[in-house]
Amino acid sequence: MNWYRITRRANWTSLDDVRADFAHADIVGRRTVFNIHGNHYRLIARVNYLSKRVFILRILTHTEYRKGGWQE
Length: 72
Description:
This protein is an alpha+beta fold. It has helices at residues 2-9, 15-21, 62-67, and strands at residues 26-28, 31-36, 41-48, 53-61. The protein has one domain (2-65). Strands 1-2-3-4 form a four-stranded antiparallel beta sheet. β1 (26-28) and β2 (31-36) form a beta hairpin. The longest helix is centred in the first third of the chain and has 8 residues, at 2-9. The N and C termini lie far apart (27 Å).
Protein backbone atom coordinates (compact mmCIF):
# COMPACT_ATOMS: atom_id res chain seq x y z
CA MET A 1 0.00 0.00 0.00
CA ASN A 2 2.88 2.37 0.70
CA TRP A 3 4.21 1.92 -2.87
CA TYR A 4 0.71 2.59 -4.22
CA ARG A 5 0.22 5.75 -2.15
CA ILE A 6 3.56 7.20 -3.20
CA THR A 7 3.09 6.27 -6.86
CA ARG A 8 -0.47 7.63 -6.96
CA ARG A 9 0.67 11.15 -6.03
CA ALA A 10 3.92 11.06 -8.01
CA ASN A 11 4.66 13.36 -10.91
CA TRP A 12 7.61 11.50 -12.36
CA THR A 13 9.29 12.67 -15.55
CA SER A 14 12.35 10.42 -15.45
CA LEU A 15 14.03 7.58 -13.57
CA ASP A 16 15.75 10.18 -11.40
CA ASP A 17 12.32 11.31 -10.18
CA VAL A 18 11.34 7.71 -9.46
CA ARG A 19 14.57 7.19 -7.52
CA ALA A 20 13.81 10.25 -5.40
CA ASP A 21 10.86 8.22 -4.04
CA PHE A 22 12.31 4.71 -4.46
CA ALA A 23 16.10 4.79 -4.27
CA HIS A 24 16.52 1.19 -5.43
CA ALA A 25 14.33 1.34 -8.54
CA ASP A 26 16.11 0.05 -11.64
CA ILE A 27 15.45 -0.06 -15.36
CA VAL A 28 15.49 -3.52 -16.94
CA GLY A 29 14.75 -3.19 -20.63
CA ARG A 30 11.57 -1.11 -20.90
CA ARG A 31 10.49 -2.02 -17.39
CA THR A 32 11.08 -0.41 -14.02
CA VAL A 33 11.77 -2.80 -11.15
CA PHE A 34 10.93 -1.72 -7.62
CA ASN A 35 12.17 -3.48 -4.48
CA ILE A 36 9.22 -3.56 -2.10
CA HIS A 37 8.42 -4.88 1.37
CA GLY A 38 11.94 -4.81 2.72
CA ASN A 39 13.46 -6.20 -0.49
CA HIS A 40 11.38 -9.39 -0.23
CA TYR A 41 9.38 -8.66 -3.39
CA ARG A 42 9.95 -7.13 -6.81
CA LEU A 43 7.23 -5.08 -8.45
CA ILE A 44 7.80 -4.91 -12.20
CA ALA A 45 6.07 -2.04 -13.96
CA ARG A 46 6.04 -0.02 -17.13
CA VAL A 47 6.19 3.68 -16.37
CA ASN A 48 4.83 6.02 -19.03
CA TYR A 49 6.21 9.42 -18.11
CA LEU A 50 4.21 11.30 -20.76
CA SER A 51 0.77 10.04 -19.74
CA LYS A 52 1.72 9.83 -16.03
CA ARG A 53 0.60 6.19 -15.86
CA VAL A 54 2.19 3.19 -14.22
CA PHE A 55 1.25 -0.28 -15.39
CA ILE A 56 1.98 -3.10 -12.96
CA LEU A 57 3.16 -6.10 -14.97
CA ARG A 58 4.17 -8.52 -12.22
CA ILE A 59 4.78 -8.83 -8.51
CA LEU A 60 7.30 -11.53 -7.67
CA THR A 61 9.18 -12.80 -4.66
CA HIS A 62 12.90 -12.17 -4.68
CA THR A 63 13.45 -15.86 -5.54
CA GLU A 64 11.00 -15.80 -8.47
CA TYR A 65 12.62 -12.64 -9.77
CA ARG A 66 16.09 -14.15 -9.72
CA LYS A 67 14.92 -17.10 -11.87
CA GLY A 68 14.45 -14.57 -14.69
CA GLY A 69 11.42 -16.03 -16.50
CA TRP A 70 9.50 -12.77 -16.07
CA GLN A 71 11.59 -11.09 -18.78
CA GLU A 72 9.99 -13.08 -21.59
